[in-house]
Amino acid sequence: MPGSAFLRRINQARVLRSLKEKGTLSRAEIARDLELTRSTVTLVTAGLLADKLIVPTGEVFVTQNTGRPGIGLKLNPRGAYFFGVEIGADELHLVLIDLTGAIIHRETERHHKKSPKIICRNLVSLVEKVWSKRLNHSDRLRGVGVAVSALLDTRGLVRKAPTLGWHDFDLKNELLKKFSIPAFAENDANAAALAELSFGGRIGCSDLCVLLLNFGIGAGIVAGRTLFRGYSGLAGEIGHLCLDPLKRSSDEEWGALESCIGRETLLKSYRAAGGNADDLQGFLSDLKKGGVAARKSARFWAEWLALTISNLADVVNPQLIVLAGPLSEVYPYVCEEVRHWLRERKFPTVANLEIQVSSFGRDAAALGGAALVFNDAFSVSDASFLTGVV
User: Fold this and answer.
1) At what angle do helices 171-178 and 116-135 cross, to 10 degrees?
2) 3-state secondary structure of 293
3) Which of 62, 167, 292, 293 could form a disulfide with 275 if both were Cys (CB 3.0 to 4.6 A apart)?
4) Residue 137 and residue 289: Cα distance in Å, rounded?
5) pLDDT by residue (tens digit) across 98-154?
6) How far apart are CA 283 and CA 224, in angstroms?
């Protein structure tokens, strides 16, 4: 039977989660929301106030049942901090968030050498620099979550990372060896899905998929508000689907689907059509102006996107598809074409499917890395940061 300390930790996590989801609440509202007694809530919130994880707002609430006034409570933004870092094909992108989930700092550094140990060393240096400059090495930093474009298994082992050229690299242990704070690792598409689930205001959405569109293509699958990782953690690698058996190759470094819908193919198609922009931003600028070459290549890309969404919907049957990553910026220009092709299919799995572009932009995967640590603060499995509670 769990002891009183364990039960207190459970209730502390529940109170924090309730305030995260609903904002400012009085103790009476917390008690009603969580079906706890007022005395229990008073004890739990006293501990959270002492640890400066929550603060009084000064707002006075009147309880409907008793008419008694109560003071509002909310999360203390400065109560805890969390780092998220994305290891991309050519850069590290870092975000620092507070206890409310707000991004308070972001920073990007390019990497010129793709050795996994060198990149990990640079990642640690980046975190240490921001920790020192922005937080003065505050002990309220709870850890760092790292998102990487790779087939990452449940042990934190990078089985393959085609964009980085990594094979069988123990990323999680490398991070744990170098950091003095808790460290977590996750596939970038899964991380982007966690960002949507944690910070995207998706409380009423239990089944969704995030399509991360960049050099490669990955899917983060959420079923019943739980991230689906598969048997060994490698679920969602849809970029490696082969939709044309005639083009099947034994070389699985680059997936068949992502070779049709990835960034390099889009730009190659654009240049073949007469476009002269050097990079994705140039392509997007041309597309915004209505350039013929940009429109033609975007429409070709949209056909593959519609096929990708259709197949994903058939397998997973989500309520919502969220497009994330750099190529998601193309979608607003071709959304009517994609929706037209999905309607023409007349199949139940896509009939009521909602498609949105993530509001997180460049931060999606890094923010999901931060969510790995952030969510621990609101779960019972790790309440170790609630120190000093009696």
Assistant:
1) 40
2) helix
3) 293
4) 47
5) 999 999 999 999 988 889 999 999 999 999 999 999 999 999 999 999 999 999 999
6) 38
Strand ranges inside 24-174, DSSP E: 25-26, 54-62, 69-75, 81-87, 91-98, 103-110, 141-148, 151-152, 157-161, 166-170
Whole-number mean pLDDT of the chain? 89
How would residue 390 be classed by pLDDT, with cut points 50, 70 and 90?
A: very low
- In order, the DSSP letters of 188-247 are HHHHHHHHHHHHS--TT--SEEEEEESSSEEEEEEETTEEE--SSS-TT-GGG--S-GGG
- Per-residue pLDDT, averaged over 338-346, amounts to 91
Give the up-direction half-sphere exposure of residue 349: CA atoms within 13 A in the CB hemisphere: 16
Q: Is 248 exposed, middle or buried (0-12, 13-18, 19+ CB in 10 A)?
A: exposed
Sign of the dihedral through C-alpha 93, 219, 166, 159: positive
* Residue count of the chain: 390
pLDDT of residue 201: 83
Is residue 386 pLDDT above 50, yes or no? Answer: no
Q: Alpha helix locations (H) across the chain?
A: 4-22, 27-34, 38-50, 116-135, 171-178, 188-199, 258-261, 263-272, 280-288, 292-316, 331-345, 348-351, 364-374
Between CA 118 and CA 120 the distance in angstroms is 5
> What order do you get walking across the sheet with 157-161 strand by strand?
151-152, 157-161, 166-170
320: part of which helix (H) or strand (E)?
A: strand 320-324
For residue 116, what are its two tokens? Answer: 């996994």
Residue 204 CA to residue 87 CA, distance in Å, equals 31
User: Which pair of structure tokens corresponds to residue 80?
Assistant: 């805890």
pLDDT of residue 163: 87
| Packing angle of the helix pair 38-50, 27-34 (nearest 10 deg) | 120
Tokens 């997973």 found at: 316
Q: Tell me how far apart the alpha carbons of residues 240 and 162 are, in angstroms, rounded to a whole number.
A: 11
What is the tens place of the pLDDT at every residue in 282-315? Answer: 999 999 999 999 999 999 999 999 999 999 999 9
- Any idea of the CA torsion for 115, 116, 118, 123, to the nearest 10 degrees? 140
